[in-house]
Write a structure and sequence with these properties.
elongated; 3 domains; four-stranded antiparallel sheet; binds flavin mononucleotide; alpha+beta; NADH Oxidase
């Protein structure tokens, strides 16, 4: 691994790296020799495409190593689209799970696939907390119920409402008032009595997606990472469902943050519950896009 941008003597001057660099940092000189333009080096965000494309492993970027950071690009054949479409068509939101834990090997496979999601700017800022212990899931449910019970009570108090509105901002407050609170009021009695779990859905496992609040574009990165997770889950026999009510609960509850060991300064952006589905769907559903404009 080098500490500076370098082109080794193995370079065959094929020009692939020059063509692929998104910021035109590589160039050929008058003699056809490839070099890094010193005036553009600051634009290198270490996407690694130059190293991925070099047939002679001659391009070197600080912090990236051919040995440890790259793998042979898998070849795609004519079945690849069908395989992807099958995955996409298979994915459904699972809310009813078998009463058995998800083996760690499967969660590890899922984590590997999530790590393939593209970051807006390398290095990857997404951090995961993988909850594989059903007992921990159950304990967290109790804390979520307490938190939401408290929120519903506060929203009924005009002074507390005023402060919640000021803290949450207009848009979030409208969502809270129009959707979240009515839904919670309906669900809380059964949640509290243990009759029904409409929060974590008695899922045996969950992945929390979080990032340091100072990092760039992390919410979009996490949305994409969660998409990889829910698409890949069915291929492992699992159902994975994004649950929007979990991240704000973890955000607001110091007890939940401690339980899940969320680093201080990190925002929990997403939660995907996971488990073996109790039932198999017999049919998918077609949902036409709101519009498709061809130009
Ligand atoms: C961003 C996002 C947030 C979601 N949040 C929840 C949630 O809080 N609770 C839930 O039960 N399902 C949640 N879902 C699942 C959707 O409700 C579900 O995908 C949708 O109803 C379509 O059903 P299908 O996934 O089976 O096709 C969420 C899905 C997405 C993409």
């Amino acid at each position: 691994m080098t500490t500076t941008h370098e082109i080794s003597a193995d370079c065959k001057a094929c020009g692939s790296c020059v063509e692929i660099c998104p910021n035109r940092i590589l160039q050929k000189d008058a003699a056809g020799k490839v070099f890094f333009r010193p005036d553009r080096l600051w634009m290198c965000f270490r996407c690694g495409q130059c190293m991925s494309i070099c047939p002679s492993r001659a391009v070197m970027i600080p912090g990236l190593s051919y040995e440890t950071d790259f793998y042979p690009q898998p070849a795609l054949d004519e079945r690849a689209f069908d395989a992807f479409e099958t995955l996409a068509a298979n994915r459904r939101a699972g809310r009813s799970f078998q009463d058995r834990p998800v083996p760690r090997e499967l969660l590890e496979k899922l984590v590997e696939v999530i790590a393939l999601a593209p970051p807006s700017f390398p290095p990857v800022k997404t951090e995961l907390t993988v909850v594989a212990d059903p007992a921990l899931m159950h304990r967290s449910l109790g804390l979520m119920i307490d938190l939401y019970d408290n929120l519903v009570k506060k929203m009924a108090n005009p002074v507390a409402r005023f402060f919640i509105r000021r803290q949450a901002g207009r848009e979030t407050f409208i969502t809270l008032n129009n959707h979240v609170i009515p839904l919670l009021k309906e669900r809380l009695p059964d949640l509290k009595s243990g009759k029904e779990d409409t929060l974590t859905r008695r899922a045996p496992a969950m992945i929390l997606f979080h990032s340091d609040r100072q990092s760039e574009n992390y919410r979009t990165d996490i949305a994409i990472a969660m998409t990889y997770a829910i698409l890949a889950a069915p291929a492992l026999g699992l159902a994975g469902t994004i649950i929007d009510l979990i991240p704000p609960a973890v955000e607001k509850s110091p007890a939940l943050r401690a339980l899940f060991q969320i680093p201080a300064g990190s925002e929990v952006v997403g939660a995907v519950i996971l488990g073996f589905p109790k039932r198999r769907f017999l049919r998918g559903i077609r949902r036409p896009l709101k519009s498709v404009t061809w130009l």
